[in-house]
Amino acid sequence: MRATSSVIVGRDSEIGLLGRALDGAARGSGSAVFLVGEAGIGKSRLAGECAFRAYGLDMPVLRGRATSTGLVVPFRPLAEALSSRFRAAGTPDDAELVPYRPALASLVPEWRGGAAPGYPDSLIELAEALLRLLSVLGRERGCVILLEDLHDADTETVAVVEYLVDNVAGLPVLLVATLRPDPGPALDLAHAAELRGTASARELGPLGDEAVRDMIAACLETGRGEVPQAAHRLLSERAGGNPYVLEVLLADLLDTGRLGRTDEGWRLAERFDPTVPTGIVRSWARRLARLDEPVRTLLLTAATLGGRFSVSALKDVTGFDDRSLFAHLRSASEAGIITPDGAAYDQYTFRHVLTAEALRATLPPAEQAALARQAAEVLEAPGDTGRELSDETRQLVAALRLAAGDEAAAARQLVLVGRHMLAAGAAGSAVVLLERARKLAADDGRDAVTVSLAVAQAQCGQLDTARALLDDLAPVPAGSPAAEARAEALVEVAWVTTMAEQREEALVLTRAARALLGPAPLPVHEAALAVVEGHLTLLPGHAGREELAETERSARRAALIAEEHRTPVVACRAWQLLALLSRERGFDEADACLERMLAVSEEHRLPVWRAEALVRLGANAFMRSGEATRLETARSAARELGSLALLQHIDGMLAMQAVLGGRWERATEIVEQSVEASVRVRNHAAHRYLLLVRATSAAHQGRSRERDQALTRLRRAGGEESMLVPLQRGLCQAMGALMEEDRDRALAELDAALAWERAHPSFFYLSGRYGLRPLLRVLSGADDRAAYRETLASPGAALAWNRVFLGMADAVLLGREKDRAGAMRAVRAAGEAARAFPQAWHLALRLTAEAALADGWGEPVAWLRTAEEYFYGAGVQPVAAACRAALRQAGVTVSQRRGGRERIPAGLREVGVTPREHEVFVLLAERPGNQEIARRLHISPRTVEKHLASLLAKTGCADRAALCALSAETAESAAQD
Q1: Could you tell me if 149 and 182 are in contact, meaning their C-beta atoms sit under 8 angstroms apart?
Q2: Residue 822: how many other CB atoms lie within 10 Å
Q3: Are 527 and 570 in contact (CB under 8 A)?
Q4: Which residue, 411, 537, 720, 752, has fewest beta-carbon neighbours within 10 Å?
Q5: What is the pTM of this model?
Q6: 226-259 pLDDT tens trace
């Protein structure tokens, strides 16, 4: 007889918490709840109640459970949760999810596009994609994701859950996770999240005395007053307030007839056998004895396979035919012992994990070991198909071998799975498995496991741990197979260390690898080392010109050797290094290296390296011509790969291309959709670049207040310690100074950028060194034809943006040399280069016109009119005013601009503020003096005083400070709009 309660008792506080959380999710105010407690304490009942209430609110519910068998299967609870929803409702087709489908492909089979399932390159990218998916699912009514038995989850799942917990606030999502209070990452996460206020954690204690009575009454479907006092006392003592144990013991009392209903109500036998079970194990032994022999065999075998088991594995081990197998499964299910697992079609699970443990405990230890050994042998047998065992089956075999007492055999299986997961990118799970294998391995095999574990730790970012593992290994003879394997691990750890810019540590590792390989390493080993050592030379302050030349020669040899020996990852690393080193000689050579890198990656199906090659080719094409076709191709590849980090990096470049093209609204749109997401996924490099784009966009529009705010954020994000300093000083701040007509400050910023580049390796060519700076120095007379030729010989001079300014510098020099026809040819050439850069072209015209007027060549008046029209329309009033002033000085009649009323805020228009007064008002946000305002607007200080007096009268401000505050407030409101 089954004895289960149809209601939850003693958990009113927890039910109230979940109810409030559901209401919050429905309103778009997400939260996370952890339910912590021992096995059987009622965590799953509460999760089920939460799901029931969510269904009642028509909320999507996603429910997954970690495996309780000890198997490490990355993302299994998450994949089950998504499957539980999509199996019935289908996958969502919202357009906004398209960029995130590749990242979610490892969890959603329908989004794999025919490719083999794999693990994502970045857990944070996967977590962000999952967060976006949940937000879409919960858009109308909120949604709930329930993850049970999180203590059994893999490290990757726990990392994703942590990201969800930290970012779910403000979204229509409720996350509920259940776990035992066992020490481990899941419990650490629950406690840490509660401390930082991002989640609620509730520890479920045993039921109190009255709650036990209520539960017994609910199980018996009777009034609480009809429960025999003796039965209540007995069950309270033996169950210890655990609902699951209480139900099992109550079922045993009912099955044995010691508790039964009479005409007078429920009665407990006054006398009973002294061998009556005193715990859950003996209760299950009694229940098993009452089952048919085949069903008993099936259940004991299933319990040996774990709390959750595969029907196909159970069939292989028991030898039952399909008809008998499913008949016995149905009998066990009807008895309330097992149940079909809704997350997988061929899986069953015990009603509670304690059930499997109790069933195994009914067997003597020797019989348990024998049954486990038999099951392992059956599962390991290749069968007629000679199939390769899956990772999950290998872990099950390892668990069975361990239960049978064969630790070495268990270790061998775990090592195979760990190395496979490491190769597939699941480094966190690989660490867990390899650590288990290392503890179990025989002495003669432990060092090989340790080497693999060190590489896995390094890929997880645990560089100190990886180094310590390798340092603890016993010495091996240089040049031996063991030494070669160890050296390969050192090189991989050194690569990760180099990418983390830990130069000294990486050098130590490469030297150790060379010592292991001996004086004559194999070419393939030499190639791998040369590539790592070559990348080290690019770190700031390391290599001189001669060393860089030798690095390039070594990298070229390494690339050819790696291709010959079919080590494609080393080849891609080598071609990537060569592309950087050869850029100083020209972009054609750099692109040839990247094209080879692309070919290798495509031949060997390395999607990450393919996307990396496309990004670098796209960036080069953008800098050379200003067009973004190849960048868009690279973006498509990154989207297919599911790499949010690459997507954000490419979006930054596309946004900068929009800034240089004068498409500032498009640049803002790109930045705003990526800048905050880049923080969440800890893509710090892309985040800094997006902030630089934001600052540069504001600077090019003459919005100094917005520029300075963005630069402050960039500084806080580490921008001044990054490779972006030359772009910040030149492309952003120098251009911003020119938009304020401050050439001296612009030259100072350009000089600072050049000084930084001379002290650090730099591969940026848009800092002004090869275009804007030479033009300004030619205009000031500081540079002559010789300096121009020196700049022209640099690869940076070939970039379209730089050709605009460098061409105009040539025109100025030719004009001074009285070669008027040559000067005009140079202007036309600059105009051809400027097709994609309207602001650069009009700035160059404005700068060059004065020199043309002075030297009597060209069409300076037409140029100034064109520039004035452009900058007036763009709202860059200082430059527009400077153009008008230059025209007047040239004796040209210039009509005063009286338009622009549409730019004046409604409140100021209503009180009669004129366009010219508004120009003064806008500048007051920065609190400049009258002389500064006069200089920037090309009017007299006396005129500024008149405008200020008029503004004070019209706005009703008490004084200049109040007027400045109003200006700042108006600018802030406009920025938010």
Answers
A1: no
A2: 16
A3: yes
A4: 720
A5: 0.64
A6: 888 888 888 887 777 888 888 888 887 887 788 8
